[in-house]
Design a protein that fits this description.
By secondary structure, the protein is α/β, with parallel strands linked by helices. 54% of the residues lie in helices and 11% in strands. It is built from 13 helices and eight strands. It has an eight-stranded mixed β-sheet with strand order 3-2-4-1-5-6-7-8, with helices on both faces. Helix 11 links the parallel strand 5 and strand 6. Helix 3 packs antiparallel against helix 4, helix 3 packs across helix 13 and helix 10 crosses helix 11. The longest helix is centred in the last third of the chain and has 20 residues.
């Protein structure tokens, strides 16, 4: 059984809802990427140096990151030589296989670190405007749907309207929001939130933070103080520090990730607005160049469109037509 058949079988064993969400959420990237790939296969019938140069340009244009793409091209050349692949159409499964490997190279680290016997604390960090509050609201909805008791902490006390925005989400999804006045100490908000969540026997505490990047030293100090208060009250917490990035900002998201990585221990990425970009290759760049797992992806505007990241669903969402076409040919 070829890679495309295996991929199709594995993906179709999962729920249709998840597969459809990845399919719909990746429409812009797939349309752009598939069109360029089809042109590549039509233009170059044989796998040669020119073919790889053109493929390199397509991948860099999709925001997959220069060093990641160079590494990928080298691996493809070596594997094509080893398997004696001459026809360009026959290299398509190898491209998807290598992409899936790079996205899922450390196995199961894409799942959230949920605690079994105590409250799970998740800290959300990121600059203003990336969809941080919306991500928190959608995650609150998701956890509540799983039957968990959720509390949200309005730790962004600096941005005008941030507390009110989280409040609106709280009302919308039916989740309590712990807050203080604008300008309050975020660490004090976190302390109150932990006490409040404990008194409510909450399973999950979702914490918003300020996203000011003007001064990295202040950002570091602020996040360190917040984390110190949380870990003092709950040893081992926060159990996740999720950096929220906007997929539509491309390489700018990479520079934000590097800044936050220096400022705090980021355990995973929540990538929003993936449905709004034709350059979904940014997922590959983040995973490879920063060595941070992408744990959540935003695939649309609906409440349940923030989905756990799945490397195979992602690759299938990109190459869907090609996968199905070749899987049928070989069956």
């Amino acid at each position: 059984m070829g890679f495309f058949e295996k991929l199709k079988n594995k993906v179709t064993q999962q729920t249709d809802t998840v597969t459809e969400k990845f399919k719909e959420g990746l429409t812009k990237t797939r349309d752009s990427f598939a069109e360029q790939m089809n042109e590549l296969f039509a233009q170059y019938r044989t796998v040669d140096e020119e073919f790889f140069e053109e493929l390199e340009e397509i991948l860099i244009g999709a925001d997959a990151g220069v060093s990641t793409v160079m590494e990928l091209i080298d691996e493809l050349k070596e594997e094509a030589r080893r398997r004696n692949i001459k026809d360009s159409r026959n290299i398509a499964p190898l491209i998807t296989e290598k992409l899936a490997d790079k996205l899922d190279r450390t196995g199961g680290d894409a799942s959230l670190n949920m605690q079994q016997d105590e409250m799970t604390v998740i800290l959300f960090v990121g600059v203003n405007g990336v969809g941080k509050t919306t991500t928190i609201g959608k995650m609150a909805h998701s956890f509540k749907e799983e039957g968990k008791k959720v509390v949200m902490a309005a730790g962004d006390t600096f941005r005008a309207g941030a507390i009110e925005q989280l409040d609106v989400w709280g009302e919308r999804v039916g989740v309590d929001v712990v807050k203080q006045q604008a300008g309050s100490d975020p660490a004090a908000v976190m302390y109150d939130a932990i006490q409040s969540a404990r008194s409510r026997n909450a399973d999950v505490l979702l914490c918003d933070t300020a996203g000011r990047l003007q001064n990295k030293v202040n950002l570091m100090k602020e996040l360190e103080k917040v984390k110190r208060v949380i870990s003092r009250e709950i040893p081992g917490a926060p159990h996740e520090v999720l950096l929220v990035l906007d997929a539509t900002t491309g390489q700018n998201a990479m520079s934000q990730a590097k800044t936050f990585q220096e400022a705090t221990d980021v355990s995973g990425i929540a990538l929003t607005k993936l449905d709004g970009t034709a350059k979904g290759g940014i997922v590959l760049a983040i995973r490879n160049e920063l060595d941070i797992p992408v744990k959540l992806v935003g695939l649309g505007e609906k409440m349940d469109d923030m989905q756990p990241f799945d490397a195979e669903q992602f690759v299938y969402g990109l190459f869907r037509e090609l996968v199905e076409e070749q899987a049928e040919e070989s069956s």
